[in-house]
Automatic annotation (TrEMBL), chains A, B:
Domain called GST N-terminal: residue spans: 1-82
Coiled coil segments of this chain: none
PANTHER family assigned: GLUTATHIONE S-TRANSFERASE OMEGA, PTHR43968
Protein name: Glutathione S-transferase
């Protein structure tokens, strides 16, 4: 399988960590594809017209995106139900927690894009800050339950969001503001799957 | 079930159309919640700290988002496998097509937000236009296969994206550029589920 990949994309990292957890990492061949909101990767558009990574190309040419779809596919290759519970409320709880962590990443990326513009819109920056405060408070309140849940797509995405904040928003001070989330994240970030796929600013 | 709802959100419309197709529309009580990127709905943040709609609150207080998670949940209430195939490559094809249509909606909303700013970034507007051209070309090429697929979450989301373009991007001329997509979309948009949940600029 070919994966459009970048060492800085948290969504790519989700797929790589998931593949490692599932024992499938050696089946993935990565191809470096650099995308940015203001600079689409033209060579990627025939395979993913949204211009987003990760994009996975199977041996038979079938193309899969986004990261959730790719991870559910990899999970099915590994027998199913390993990173996303197969059914019942356990599944929907996992997917809702994933949506929270993943939607947070989406928002952080938009915030960073706005912040780095020549003329950022103050009201938009304020809105991102307000929602980030709400997300951090919600995560700090829920981390006990999340930590007791499965080592699945929600935990993976949340741990990656923590590292992403360190990487792109060092002034946010999330670790001091969310001590329980911080403690859990440090432990999760020490997993082999996370260390083997660290964010690299290269 | 309580649904945070707005008559202008294409993501809310996905859920409403899906509920109608599944025969569950009368189980949903809608609450109007107005959100905008520069104006988060503070009253929504305790239930969804991302400040996004749709957000579904079940009778026991369980909260679900985003629209994909809600629709898969509603699908499970209706027996499962009706709007998203339960397993196999049919499932991943449906989810990838959904990711295309849904990612397109995400992009159109960001494009509109940028376009309406006092100082839009020209490079960003150009990037949205380039990716939109790529998406429309891909959809026009794939619509034959999509039309032969199930009446599921991909078709629903794609038909809603068509109406959203008419609503917010009338100058895009997508119907003239994509005649096959146009013909398919007109027919799908005539379904009772779509007509019962039309976009209203109110």
């Amino acid at each position: 399988m070919k994966l459009h990949w970048s060492p800085r994309s948290p969504f790519v990292r989700k797929v790589m960590v998931a593949a490692h957890e599932l024992g499938l990492a050696d089946r993935i061949r990565t191809v470096r594809t650099v995308v940015a909101m203001i600079k689409p990767a033209r060579e990627l558009l025939p395979e993913n017209p949204l211009g987003k990574i990760p994009t996975l190309v199977l041996e038979d040419g079938t193309i899969l995106y986004d990261s959730l779809v790719i991870i559910e596919y990899l999970d099915s290759l590994a027998g199913g139900g390993r990173l996303i519970p197969s059914s019942g409320m356990a599944r929907f709880t996992e997917l809702r927690r994933h949506a929270l962590a993943n939607g947070f990443l989406d928002m952080l990326i938009l915030w960073r894009n706005e912040r780095d513009k020549p003329q950022p819109l103050p009201a938009l920056l304020d809105a991102f800050a307000l929602k980030t405060d709400a997300v951090l408070a919600a995560l700090e309140a829920e981390i006990g339950a999340i930590a007791q849940g499965p080592t699945g797509i929600a935990q993976i995405t949340l741990a990656i969001a923590g590292d992403y904040m360190d990487f792109r928003f060092p002034d946010l001070g999330w670790r001091a503001r969310c001590p329980r989330l911080d403690a859990w994240q440090r432990e999760f970030a020490d997993r082999a799957s996370m260390r083997a796929n660290a964010i690299v600013d290269a």
